[in-house]
């Protein structure tokens, strides 16, 4: 496991959809030494009960990985160097995070979550970062990169999949094996965990349609198995978004039906994407949800408002798909936020429609659990 410590930053004046698996307030006092060779810094935390504790971290650039023993006896590798969120997001935007850790199995995931919980470090789990807008200021907490990538199938059409497994790979495998329900996933560059959290969908299919059960771990490290019947999904939303004590989705069981045409459908959907989306550009998919009960897509409204190709700095409305905003090179998070705000305003002025973001903005100092998320 690898943790990264970075500088303290100030809160930007921007609010949009905010997401976080948050923990109590943490106050950071950072005193880096001026030279690159060796940096030490002191971190102090305040717990909600006002009991505070502190520890000293030492960083040497010659040795950026260290092994640290956690309470549960696991040896964890902590990296203490700048990990840039732009390298973890498809938009290619985002500054450094204070701590970074990559997990490859359930035990590591639980240890990382427990560690953050016990040390009052706010944290966020990410998969491929394909639906997140990170801030240039970074994230004042721990980013847990999920790479739990197993897939088990003991019965035809039943797949138990690690939450870090690539969703597009799963879609292709199931369709090629002759099962229907995840053909749409073939073109979605996220993970199973991200897709379940977002209830990703396309082409009239969505993740929730084929979920049978979800295994989660809570903030305090406890496991829970949730059956589909107890989970209320909606359009691009899931009950996980409002689960205050959610640590992470660990694995998902999918139940698919046999179909002779799934493979062909998958290819059709992929071809449709190839001609209608800016494949190869840096994007986060659709920026806005389609407005409910209007019979018109967000992309069409943006296009009709004459905004295709409109840009703010390095952020641009795609000329190919108006609901895809691309980082055409050097876009800052503020460029993207300004572009989103501008497009919202124009569409509202012209059509009286208030678009709502599908992408999630990760606030650098969010202490609350996604306060702007679906009510
Ligand atoms: C080119 C392109 C095309 C796209 N097309 C589509 C599309 O057709 N349909 C669609 O719905 N979306 C689409 N997307 C958006 C995105 O790929 C999906 O929402 C995807 O499911 C996000 O997965 P991720 O792993 O990247 O999530 P991330 O962006 O890493 O995270 C998204 C959210 O999920 C949470 N999360 C991630 N993993 C976990 C976990 N294990 N446990 C708990 N919470 C977790 C994160 O904390 C965050 O809140 C597209 C994106 C791109 C770039």
UniProtKB/TrEMBL annotation:
GO terms for molecular function: FAD binding; UDP-N-acetylmuramate dehydrogenase activity. Cell wall formation. This is UDP-N-acetylmuramate dehydrogenase. One of its GO terms (cellular component) is cytosol. It comes from Quercus rubra. Pathway: Cell wall biogenesis; peptidoglycan biosynthesis. Its cofactor is FAD. Its main location: cytoplasm. It is an enzyme of class 1 (oxidoreductase).
């Amino acid at each position: 496991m690898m943790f990264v410590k970075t500088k303290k930053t100030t809160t930007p004046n921007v609010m949009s959809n905010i997401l976080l698996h948050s923990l109590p307030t943490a106050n950071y006092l950072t005193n880096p030494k001026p030279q690159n060779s060796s940096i030490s810094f002191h971190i102090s935390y305040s717990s909600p009960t006002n009991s505070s504790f502190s520890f000293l971290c030492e960083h040497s650039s010659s040795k950026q990985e260290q092994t640290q023993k956690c309470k549960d006896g696991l040896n964890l590798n902590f990296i203490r160097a700048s990990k840039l969120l732009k390298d973890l997001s498809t938009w290619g935007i985002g500054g450094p995070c204070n701590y970074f850790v990559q997990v490859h199995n359930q035990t590591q995931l639980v240890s990382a979550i427990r560690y953050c919980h016990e040390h009052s470090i706010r944290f966020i789990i990410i998969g491929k970062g394909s639906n997140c807008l990170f801030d240039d200021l970074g994230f004042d907490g721990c980013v847990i990169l999920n790479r739990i990538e197993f897939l088990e199938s003991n019965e035809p059409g039943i797949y138990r999949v690690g939450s870090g497994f690539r969703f597009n790979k799963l879609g292709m495998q199931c369709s090629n094996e002759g099962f229907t329900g995840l053909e749409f996933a073939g073109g979605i560059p996220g993970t199973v965990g991200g897709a379940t959290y977002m209830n990703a969908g396309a082409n009239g299919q969505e993740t929730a349609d084929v979920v049978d059960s979800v295994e989660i771990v809570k903030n305090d490290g406890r496991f829970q198995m949730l059956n589909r019947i107890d989970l209320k999904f909606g359009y691009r939303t899931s009950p996980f978004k409002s689960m205050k004590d959610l640590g992470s989705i660990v694995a998902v069981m999918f139940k698919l039906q046999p179909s002779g045409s799934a493979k062909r459908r998958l290819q059709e959907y992929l071809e449709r994407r190839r001609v209608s989306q800016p494949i190869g550009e840096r994007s986060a998919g659709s920026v806005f949800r389609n407005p409910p009960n209007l019979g018109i897509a967000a992309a069409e409204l943006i296009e009709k408002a004459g905004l295709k190709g409109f840009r703010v700095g390095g952020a641009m409305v795609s000329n190919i798909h108006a609901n895809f905003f691309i980082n055409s090179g050097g876009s800052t998070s503020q460029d993207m936020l300004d572009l989103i705000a501008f497009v919202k305003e124009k569409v509202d002025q012209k059509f009286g429609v208030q678009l709502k973001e599908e992408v999630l903005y990760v606030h650098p100092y969010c202490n609350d659990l996604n306060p702007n998320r679906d009510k």
